Every structure is written in C-alpha cells, then in structure tokens.
C-alpha cells in the first residue's frame, strides 16, 4: 500500500515525496543470519526510495537500518513524546528492562530530571526472560512510582517479568511505557494484569496509545525538508 501511495503521488506530479514510516516493521532483520535469508530492512529501504525523496521513521531497532537508505533518511525519537506524557503523572524512577536500553532511559531521565535504574536480562525463550536488578543507576525505593521504558513491546514477556520483580522489591506502582506497542497475542492483557498502567505512542494503533510523536516528526519535516 505504501508503494502504491508513493506511485500515485508521482503520477499526480508531486514535486517531492517524503515518506513517513512511524513504525518500520521490517527493521529488525538488518543483517543476514543464515545463507539465503533476505535482509528485509535493506530490501524495503530500496523499494521505498526508488520513487521517494526522503524518509522519516521513529525509534529504529538498530542504527544499521538508516544506513540501508541512499536517499536522506532521518529517525525521530519517541523519548520526548513519552516524556511529555510522564511529566503529567507521578514518576519517582525510570527503569530500563535491560542494559541495551540504558541510554534510552538515561536520556528520558535527563528530560524529566528523575533518577533511573537498570535490570539485567537473561532470555529463556521467545516469551520468557529472567531478570535481576543491576548494580547501576538508582536503587528502587519502597513505595516508589516506577516506570519501565522500552522501545518496543511485542510479546510482553520482558515487561511482565520486570513488573513482577519490581513489585517484589517494594514498588508502590509499576507502569510500562514504550514507543511501539505491538502487543502480540494476549500481551496487553498480561501486562495490564501486573502493572498500574500501560502507555504507548501513536506509531501503531493499539489500546495503550496515549502519546503522540507527530510534533517530533513535524520538527524533522520542517528542519530537514521544509527549506528545500
């Protein structure tokens, strides 16, 4: 459908076509793991930019995805949108569910001027993980309002395990927040049963979307493409 829209714009003599892909669904496959596999991020990038002049997306899973584009491609962050939402809610500490998300949580903590902490994760299978509180960041305080921040929530296994761990550690409340809310199968209900709230941006239609990345995408449109 996206390729058809791009083609229709060109056929209508559009001066420029800038493609906004809030959730780049094929970005996780950014390299070949087995012989004969397609690198979906690169393949999709090639098809999009055949008739597009530029691309904007949000919170890619890997920096390699932007490198797949030959045309101008920019990545908006979902952090400001989530931060704007959390600024209106009780938050004592932000939590990264694994070491890979520390930079994301630290950046949000800087915006909100809140402490942060991290968990260490060992994956058991596609839906189950084992977590423990890492020796970095701020320790959880008894009765504190904690927010787990991630880029993508898909099966919900990590968030469920993190929420249960933090509750056992004495958290007063645990909320989950993410940029991309996939919520596969019964993930939303599973997370809802162990948290006090679930927040997502509007990159995907889902029952938790409460923060908009539109202002952040608009800023890139103006700064990168508006003067051309």
TrEMBL record:
SUPFAM superfamilies in the record: PRTase-like
Gene Ontology MF terms: ATP binding; kinase activity; magnesium ion binding; ribose phosphate diphosphokinase activity
Q: Which residues form the signal peptide?
A: none
Q: What class of enzyme is it?
A: transferase
Q: Name one GO biological process term.
A: purine nucleotide biosynthetic process
**Which stretches make up the Phosphoribosyltransferase domain?**
89-186
Q: Does the keyword ATP-binding apply?
A: yes
Pfam families the UniProt entry points to: Pribosyltran, Pribosyltran_N
Catalysis: reaction(s): D-ribose 5-phosphate + ATP = 5-phospho-alpha-D-ribose 1-diphosphate + AMP + H(+)
Q: What is its EC number?
A: 2.7.6.1
Q: Which UniProt keywords apply?
A: ATP-binding, Kinase, Nucleotide biosynthesis, Nucleotide-binding, Transferase
For whether the record's keyword set contains ATP-binding, the answer is yes
Q: Where would I find the Ribose-phosphate pyrophosphokinase N-terminal domain in this sequence?
A: 1-49
Q: Which GO terms describe its cellular component?
A: cytoplasm; ribose phosphate diphosphokinase complex
Q: Which NCBIfam families match?
A: ribP_PPkin
Q: This chain belongs to which protein, by name?
A: ribose-phosphate diphosphokinase
């Amino acid at each position: 459908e996206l390729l058809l829209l791009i083609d229709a714009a060109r056929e209508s003599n559009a001066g420029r076509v800038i493609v906004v892909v809030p959730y780049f669904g094929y970005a996780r496959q950014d390299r070949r793991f087995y012989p004969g596999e397609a690198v979906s991020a690169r393949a999709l990038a090639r098809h999009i930019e055949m008739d597009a002049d530029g691309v904007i997306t949000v919170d890619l899973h890997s920096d390699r995805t932007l490198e797949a584009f030959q045309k101008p491609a920019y990545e908006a962050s979902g952090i400001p949108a989530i931060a704007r939402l959390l600024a209106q809610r009780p938050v004592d500490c932000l939590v990264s569910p694994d070491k890979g998300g520390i930079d994301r949580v630290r950046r949000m903590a800087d915006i909100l001027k809140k402490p942060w902490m991290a968990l260490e994760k060992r994956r058991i299978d596609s839906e189950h993980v084992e977590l423990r509180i890492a020796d970095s960041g701020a320790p959880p305080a008894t009765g504190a309002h904690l927010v787990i921040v991630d880029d993508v929530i898909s099966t919900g296994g990590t968030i469920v395990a993190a929420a249960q761990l933090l509750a056992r550690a004495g958290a007063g409340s645990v909320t989950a927040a993410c940029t991309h809310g996939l919520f596969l199968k019964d993930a939303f209900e599973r997370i809802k049963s162990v948290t006090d709230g679930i927040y997502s941006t509007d990159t995907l239609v889902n029952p938790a979307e409460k923060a908009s990345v539109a202002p952040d995408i608009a800023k890139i449109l103006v700064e990168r493409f508006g003067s051309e």
